[in-house]
Here is the input.
Amino acid sequence: MRKPGSWFETELEQRGVSRREFVEFCGVMATALALPKVFGARIAEAVLKAEKPVIVWLEFQDCAGNTESFLRATKPTVADIVLDVLSVDYHETIMAAAGHQAEDVLAKTVKEKKGAYLAVVEGSIPTGANGAYCTIGGRSALQIAREVCGGAAATIAVGTCATFGGLPAASPNPTGALGVADAVPGLKNLVNLSACPMNPENLTALVVHYLTFKDLPALDGYRRPLFAYGKSIHDNCERRAHFDAGQYVEAWGDDGHRTGYCLYKMGCKGPVTFQNCPVVRWNDGTSWPIGCGHPCIGCAEPDFWDKMTPFYRHLPTIPGFRLGTPVDKVGLWASAGVAAAFATHGLISLVQRARTGSVKDEHIPPPPPEDEPEKPGSPEKGASS
Amino acid sequence: MSTSVPFVVSESGRHYPIGPAPPEHSDLVRVYVWEWPVRLAHWGVVLSIAVLAVTGIYIGYPSITVTGPAGDHFLTGTVKVVHSYAAILFTLSVLSRLIWMFQGNHFARWDKFIPIKRRRRRGLVQALRFYLFQLRKPPGFIGHNPLAGATYTLVFGLYLVQILTGFTLYGAGANVDSHMRVFRHLIPLLGGLQTARLIHHGVMWLLIGFAIHHVYSAVLMSQIEGNATIESIFSGYKFVQKDDVIYSGYRYFDPKDIHDQHP
Here is the structure.
C-alpha cells in the first residue's frame, strides 16, 4: 500500500509517525464519523492519495480561540498533520507574510484555485455601519467573506461566533454581528462547527470526510455535521446514570459534587446542547467541562450568551423580570393570586345570596325582543317539548 | 326510547334527544348535553394534566433524591417516562375533543367556543356582567356559556402550545430513527430550546390558574343555576328550566328586576 511521493506520506515520515499510528488514527476518524470499522482502510487510502487541499483561514470578530484550539496539541499527531500541514495559504495568526504580500496570496488563491479551496471562517461578521467595525486591508469582513466563501469548494464556519454570531452578536449586538450563514446567505457548501471554541477533533474528522468522500457529511438544521452534533451532551454524558437515578449536585463542593453526581440542578445545559464533547472530550481526550465538575453552558447552541444564561440556573429569566427570577416562583404566586381572587369572588357571591335569597327558583323574565331572528328549527331555542 | 322523547333539531336536520319529558309539576327538563366522547376527553385531560404537572415540576426541580449506587435506582428516569405517557394521553384527549367539535352534538360544536353569532357575543358580555355582580343570574345557555366557551378557546390554544413545546423538547433529543425528530424544525421558531422550556413552564402555571378558575366556576354555576352542572360532566345530563330550553341564552336578571321581585 506504500506509494512514495504522496505529500502525506512524506509528512508522516518527516514527523516520525509510524504506520501503526496512522492506521489507528484512521480507525478513530471512522469512529468519530460514526462509520463502520471497515471505513478505516478506505479513509487511510483516501487520505494517502489525496491532493494537498488548500485552505484559507479568515479571522473576523474573534478572539483567535478557534485558532488556539486548532493549533493546540500536546504531541505531534496525525491529526496535526491533517490540519496544520494542509496547505494553509492564508491564516492571519500563523502566516509569515504580512501586509500587501499576505493579501496578494489570498487574492491569488481565490483567483487561481477558484472552486477548489476550503474557506475556514473564524469570528462573526459585523454588518453595522456598512461593516466598518472589522476591516482588513481596507475591505470589510463582509466583502471579504462574500468573495472568498463565494469562490470556495466548501466553507467551514468554526466556533460559535462564525456559526451563530456568538459573543459579538449577544444583546445588544452593537456591531450588527452575524454568523456566516446569515451574513452571506445562499452559500451552498457551508458547514458549521459551533462551540466555543470548536473541537479540533471535529474539524479533523470533517476534513478527513471531505478527503475520503469528496463530499460533506450529513448536516442538521443548523448545518452542523450530525456525526458531531446529532446527540445531546446529556444523552452521552458519563454522569447520565446519576440523572436517571435521581442523584444531583445540590451545592458547589457538596458530597454529590465530589462524588460526580449530575449537575442538572446547577444549571447544566447538557439536555439542550448538541455536541460530542462527552465522547471526544478536549485536549487530546484529557477531560471536558462536565468531566471536571462544571455544568455545560451550552456554547454550541445559537445565541448561547443570551439564551443559556443565567449559566447556573435551569431556566432563562422571564423577559421584563429581574435577572434570575425563576418562572415557577412567579407562577406559584400568580396561581395563589388566582385562588385568592376566586375565593373573594365566592365570598361576595355567598354574602349577596344570603342577603337577597337563593336565585335557583327565581322567576324567569320573558326573553327580550329578538333583534336577530334565528332560523326556524335553530337548535338553541327551537326545542320541541 | 318512545316517540314522545323531546329532542332538538340541529341546523343540519339531525335530531338530538334531550331526555325524557319532565313530570307535569316540574319546570325542569332533562337535556343530554355532554356525550361520552366529551366526558371521556374531559377526564382524560384532567387526569393527564394532574400527572403532567406533578411529574413536570419534579423534572424541573428534582427535589426527591436517592442515595447509593446509581445503578440501583431509576427515579428521575421513571418520572420522565410517566410524563411522556401522560403527554400521549393528554395529546389524544385534546385531539379527540377537537375532532368532536366537528362531529358531536349541538353543545359540543366549534361555534360554542368561538362566538361568531351575535347572540353569543351578547351572552359573553352578560356572563361577564354576572361575574362582576351586575347580573343576578348568568345568561341561560344550556351548554357552555359564551364566556366559558371563549375561555376554552384560549385554553385549547395553551394546550397546543404545551403539546408543541413538549414535543419539541422530546424530539430534540429523540433517537435518530424517531418520528418525533420532525419537531426539531420548531426549535428556531420557538426561539431555541431554553425558550421552549421557559414557555413550557409558564403555560403550565397558566393552566393551573385555569384549573382553579374552572373548578370554582363549575361549583358557582351549579349553585346559582341549580341545573346539575357538576353532575353533568359525569352523567352527561343537565336539568334545565323549561324556559331555558325554549328561549336558550336569553335568561338574565338586571338589578332593577331583583328590586321588583323582592319588594
